[in-house]
Amino acid sequence: MHVKQILSRGPQVEKKPLIELVNVTKTYDEENVVNDLSLTIYENEFITLLGPSGCGKTTTLRMIAGFIQPDEGKIIINGKIFNDLPPYARPIHTVFQRYALFPHLNVLENVAFGLRNRSYESLEKFFGRDVLIEEAKKVSMDKEPSKHLVNKIINRKIEAMAKEALALVKLTGFENRKTDMLSGGQQQRVALARALVDKPQILLLDEPLAALDLKLRQAMQYELKEMQKKLGITFVFVTHDQEEAMTMSDRIVVMKDGVIQQEGSPKSIYNEPVNRYVANFIGETNIIPGIYVKKDLVHFLGTDFPCTGYTFANKEKVDVVIRPEDWDVVPLDKAKVVGEVTFSLFKGVHNEYDVKVKNTTLLVHTYESYEVGQPIGLTIDPYEIHMMKVETDEQVI
Amino acid sequence: MNKSFRILATPYQIWLMLLVFVPLLAMIIISFTNLTSEVPLNEVSFTLANFLILGETSTLVAFKNSLVYASLSTIICFVLGYFIAYKIKTSRFNNKFIVLTIVILPMWSNLILRAEALMNVMSENNIIKSLIGFSILGNTAGTGFAVLFGLVFTYMPFMILPIYTTLEKIDPALEEAALDLGLTPFKKFWKVVFPLSFRGVVSGSIMVFLPTLAGFAIPKIISRGQIIFIGNIIDTKFMYTSYDQGALLAVLILVFILGSILLLTRFDKEGETLL
Question: What pLDDT digit, counting tens, does each position of B130-162 carry?
Fold first, then answer.
C-alpha cells in the first residue's frame, strides 16, 4: 500500500461530532491521570482508547460515563456541557469489565432492568404517547384507555425489546436463566444486551473481552464490529490489546501517561507511528537509527535506501521504522543488505527470523525458509520505509 | 488430609453429643413426664398434663410479651441498624475496622453488668443525675419503654454486623451499572443495594429476634419484674424444680428457633453472614 493513499484517507469532514473532550484533566494524589486531553468522537464511529494499564484510558471512559468528574476541562455531548450531569441522566450505557450483572435477577430481568425502572413519563415519551394510546384503544375498545392498561402495554413492549436484544446477542432461550448459571461468554452477551436494549447513542466498553479465552475473544471482536455497524451506535472501546484495537476500530487513540500519543485509523497508526512508544506498542517492529541524507534518500545499516513521502532537514538524524513483514527476502546478489540468521521460529503461516546485519539485529517475517547461520539477503521497497523524528528524552520501552 | 480432619473433629462431636444433643433429647422427653423434685424418681410417668399450662393466662401473657418485645426490638434494630451499617459502608473513613470495633465494643462487657448499669441510669436517682443534675432516661425503669430500650441497646450490634458484611460484599460495579442504566441513586438503593443486602437483614433479624424472644435477664433486671417474658417463667419453673413444665416451655421456644433457622437457610445457604 502506498503512503500517499493512506494519507489521502484522512479524517472525513462531513462527520458530526458527538462527544468532545476539551482539555480534560483528572488528578489523583497530585498525579495527572488524564492530562489536558482533547478528543473528538464522531457519530456512528467505533473508536478505541488503547494503552497499557495506568495510561488513563479507563479514567477517560469513566468521565464520559459520568462516574467521575474531570478536575478541569469540558465534556461536551451533543453540543451540551455534560461535566456535572450524573450518569443516570446521560444517553450512554457501559459494558463493564466484569460484566456487573445483577445476581438477584435472571437474564431477562437483567436486560429489562433499565427500562423497567424508568418513570412512567419517560417511558411514555420513549415509546411515543400516541403509539401507546393507539395500541391501548385496540385492546380496550373504548375511548380513553386507563393508565393501568397503558402500563400493561408498556411492560409488554419492554419485554419484547429485551427479547429482541437477547436475540441480537444470540441468547434467545436463556431468558429465565440465573446469571451465575452462564459461562463467561454468555454473561458478556447479557451485559451487551442490557446496554444495547434501549439503543443508547453511545456505548462505552471497558475491556469487555479481557476475561474471555482467545477463540471466544476473536469471535466476539467480529460480532461487536458487526453489531456496531448494524445498530449505528457510537462505540467507545477501551483495551490494552493492540490486536483487538486493530480488528475492530475505525479509529484508534493511543495513550500514555494520560496523554494522547497518536490518533488515526488502524492502518495509519500501524504504518506510520509518530514515535517509538507507539511503534513498539502497536505490534512488532524494527526501529533503526538513520540519517535523512536528502529528499527521497535515507541512510541506515550502512547503505543508502530510496524512500518516499517524508520530509526532514538534510542530514537530520531519524528513526527508521520497518515492520518485520515489510522486508523482502531476495537472493544475495540482489540484496541491499546481507545478514546472518541468528534465530528462527516457525509461526505456522510465516517464519520469524532474527537477522544480524552489522551490529543490528532485525526482525524479519517471510515465507521462505532459512537455517540458523545461513546468510540472508534483504531489501525493501521505498514506500515501506517509515521515519520518525528522533526524540532525545524518550525512554525505550 | 481428610482423615486427620475427621479425627480432629471427633472431640467436638463427642462434646456436642453429650452436652447438647442428649440434654435436648432429655428435655423433650421430660416435657412429657411429671418430673418434679416432689415426685420420687420411681413414680415418674408419662403424662400430657403439662400442656395445661399453655392455656394459663400467665403463660399466654408472657408469650405475648416475648413475641411483642422481640418483634418490636427486631424492627427497631433493623431500621436503625441498617442505617448505621449503610452509613459505615458508604463513609469515606479509611479504617472501617475501628468503626466496627466501636460498634461491637459494648459486647465485650458482661451482659448482666450492662443491664444493671442501664437500670441504674433509668432509675429515679441515677449516676447521670448526680453528675450533671438531670437525666433524660431517669425514672423510666420498670416501663415497657425501658425494656425495649435495653433490648435494642444490647442486640443492635448483632443486626449491624451481618448487614454491614453483605453491604460490603456488593460489587461496586453493580451500583455503577444501575446508575448507568438510568436509575437515580434512590431507586438504585431499592432495586440493587437493598435486595442484595437482604440476606444480611434476615440473618441480623434472627440474631436479634431469637435471643430477645428466649432471653430473661434483661426484662427481669430492667423491668424490675414488672414485665414477664416466657424466659422468666422458664427460669422460675426450674428454680422451683417444676422440671416438667419448664422443659415443655423450653421445647416450645426450641420450635421457634428451629423455624427461624429454616427461614435463614432459605436466604443464606452458605451461612456467610453469620458471625
Answer: 888 777 777 788 888 999 999 999 999 999 999
Three-state DSSP at A50 gives strand
Q: What share of chain A is helix, strand, coil (3-state, %, to 5)?
A: 35, 30, 35
A100/B192 touch (CB, cutoff 8 Å), yes or no = no
Q: Which residues of A touch B195 (CB under 8 A)?
A: 104
Chain B residue numbers touching A65 (CB-CB < 8 A): 180
Residue B237, SS3?
Answer: helix
Q: Which H or E element spans position B154?
A: helix B144-169
Check the CA dihedral A327-A49-A246-A78 and report its sign: negative
A96·B177 Cβ contact <8 A: yes
Residue boundaries of the structural domains of chain A: 1-91+200-283, 105-196, 284-389
Q: Which residues contact B264 (CB under 8 A, 6 or more apart)?
A: B202, B203, B206, B271
Tell me which architecture the domain covering A284-389 has in CATH.
Beta Barrel (2.40)
Contact state of B176 with A87 under an 8 Å Cβ cutoff: yes
A259's grid cell: 496523554
The answer, for A194 touching chain B at a CB cutoff of 8 Å, is yes
- CA B30, CA B35: separation in Å to the nearest integer? 7
Give contacts of B187 with chain A, Cβ < 8 Å: 117
| Beta carbons of B177 and A100 less than 8 Å apart | yes
Residue A315: strand, helix, or coil: coil
Place of cell 469513566: A62
- Contact B177/A87, CB-based, under 8 Å? no
Q: A344 by DSSP, 3-state: which? A: strand
What interface predicted TM-score (ipTM) does this complex get?
A: 0.81
pTM over 0.95: no
Cα distance between the two ends of chain A? 28
Q: Is residue A183 helix, strand or coil?
A: coil
Q: List, in order of start, the domains of chain B with CATH numbers.
A: 56-267 (1.10.3720.10)
What is the sign, positive or negative, of the torsion defined by CA atoms of A99, A101, A107, A111? negative
pLDDT class of B208 with cuts at 50, 70, 90: very high
How many whole angstroms separate alpha carbon B122 and alpha carbon B217?
A: 16
DSSP class of residue A380 equals -
**DSSP secondary structure letter of residue B84:** H
DSSP string, A95-158: E-TT----TTSBHHHHHHHHHHTS-HHHHHHHH-HHHHHHHHHHHH-SSS--HHHHHHHHHHHH
d(CA A320, CA A387): 4
Ordered per-residue pLDDT tens for chain A, 397 residues: 344 444 444 444 467 899 999 999 999 888 889 999 999 999 999 999 999 988 999 999 999 999 999 999 999 999 899 998 999 999 899 999 889 999 999 999 999 999 999 888 888 888 888 888 888 877 777 667 788 888 888 999 999 999 999 998 889 999 999 999 999 889 999 999 999 998 899 999 999 988 888 888 888 899 999 999 999 899 999 999 988 999 899 999 999 999 999 999 999 998 888 888 898 888 888 999 999 998 889 999 988 999 888 888 888 899 999 989 999 999 988 888 999 999 999 888 889 999 999 888 999 999 988 889 889 999 999 988 988 888 765 444 4
Residue pairs between chains A and B whose CB atoms are closer than 8 Å: 57
Average pLDDT, chain B: 88
Interface test with A, best of B169, B180, B196, B201 (most A CBs within 10 A): B180
Superfamily of domain A1-91+200-283: P-loop containing nucleotide triphosphate hydrolases (3.40.50.300)
